[in-house]
Amino acid sequence: MSITNDRDSGLELHWVDPDIRPQDDFYGHVNGTWLRETTIAADEFMASPGVVSEKRKEGQLAAILDDAASDPAAQGDRRRIADLYTSYTDVERVNALGLEPLRTVVERIQATTDRTELCSVLGDLTRTLNTPTGPLIWLNQDERDSSRYLVHLLQSGLSLPDESYYRTDTHADLRHAFAAHVCASLALLELPDADTAGARVLAVESAIAAHHWEPARTRDLDQTYNLLNWAELRSIAGGFDIGAWIAGLQAPAGAFDEVVVNEPSALAGLGKVFTQTALADLQTWAIWHAFHSAASWLGDDIADHDFTMNRLVYGTQQRAPLPRRACSAVTRLLGDALGRLYVQRHFPPHSKDRIDTLVANLMAAYRCSIAAADWLTESTRVQALSKLAAFRPQVGYPQKWMDYSGLQLDPNDLFGNVQRCRAFEMHRQLSKVGQSVDRDIWIMPAHEANAYYEPGMNEIVFPAGFLQFPMFDADADDALNYGAIGAVIGHEIGHGFDDQGAKFDGDGNLRNWWTDADRAAFAAKTAVLIEQFDTFTPRDLDEGTVNGAQTVGENIADLGGLSIALKAYAIATEETGAPVIDGLTGAQRVFYSWAQNWRMKLHPETTQMVLAMDVHSPAEFRVNGIVPHIPEFYAEFDVQPGDAMYLPPDKRVRLW
User: Judging by DSSP bridges, how do beta strands 46-47 and 601-602 pair with one another?
Assistant: First the structure.
């Protein structure tokens, strides 16, 4: 049943471009006027509805921070937030200190007499400043035994976004500008060889990058699960003294007895670079990373100078204003504590109730879709339904908040606060090894405007900060919500069944539960998506295409998410019927909502980075690359052969 309703759909239809047919360019049709008239703010690298929402949320967070800082009776986490915020916003004091807090760090690096000493100092810098001078540490469950935590070590050591930036002609000018920036930065520290520092740092990082895996390979779980014991870890690390580095981390005993090394050849390559590179050049590389990691905490002059990196890589023209930077700083260092205060003010119970209903409809839609998938054999279907039944949707806020007791902060010492917060978090993470897995703590603060699927937990997480307009409005038309947050929740559930997530069972263990025939059928379907996305060039670039293999997991999740959102919307309106609003049917509004949710404008530099390393496709292809695979799109918008958005039936992919 379809009924007419005079209510506002909530869609921002004034941004529609009537001169672009939805059958030819659906993304351009829904967003064309916005794309023409919108400019990117000087302190942003993109414009999008999410940026608008984020700025609104930052005003809410700023009020929370101001209230805490002005409360002399604040205790516990509220006191910690107040002290950190006060130390960050005491601009006069921070500016007066300038580089002084960093000089001790630089002197420690310069005082090292061999690579073992240097590795120990680098471990301490990773612990206290989060410098990428060694492997990246990720504490996660063992992919093959989800009942225990293990340290995961990932490739790191670079300043530019990924390995391609060090070898392709496309980024030659950026490499030259980066080297010049390093020289200028280390000249501020009055290093005697600053004029050659850029070339030497670039040489070190180019050598490291030569051993890095490309992004498409790093997401292959069959290749990245490499469980090593301590002796094997030391052997692979070679000339990079992993034992000294771990000593610098002050890791608890036993934390590295067994580890997962995601890219073993990259770690071995780091060891070779350390063996073959002069100690002085390694020290210069370490000093650069210490400077770059610390710059935002060292006063306006230093931070403004270091912001050159943002202009070079992302195209962003200026730093964000102080209140916004302060919110970001507290989020980075005390995120869970700030999220708890945010939830208390800005996530009312009725919002959670409506989201819970929406999630229930999405789960029901997935059950129906998996049950009806004619390409699955019965044994795989049973396993898929079992995994779906074990999903843990987590909405709004975690069941348990992080415990920051023992963390002492000083309202007059920003740099020291940063080091203490970083060291506290590193110790908290590494101390999990050997403990039972805690399924009630999130890896993302509750005010974050993001979401994730955690395969080891088999859970989807949607923080309160994400459940805000325009992604979600508890009082809005169902179609608006199902096309935005509903499709995104469907997307995250879909990660449990994408090309990598489908390798995990319902208990969160890496285990093949597919028949060979079903795996082959799945691979054939995903191969079609890869081939299609390989041909897409963003409209703001003259050249450069999407990497279909690199983005296939997100593309699968997008396709499943929107398909399931349409089914869930039908379930939600089964009894009442879907009204026609603003001249659009309910299903049309779901499609419009999805398309306007992904409207986005990026600097060309950022688009290049997205193509090089992001596992997500550019926003326009999260719309135009997905909707032609969905049968409802053809029915709702009368898409016919000859239309640009038309795909022949044998080129359409249907998974869930």
Answer: antiparallel
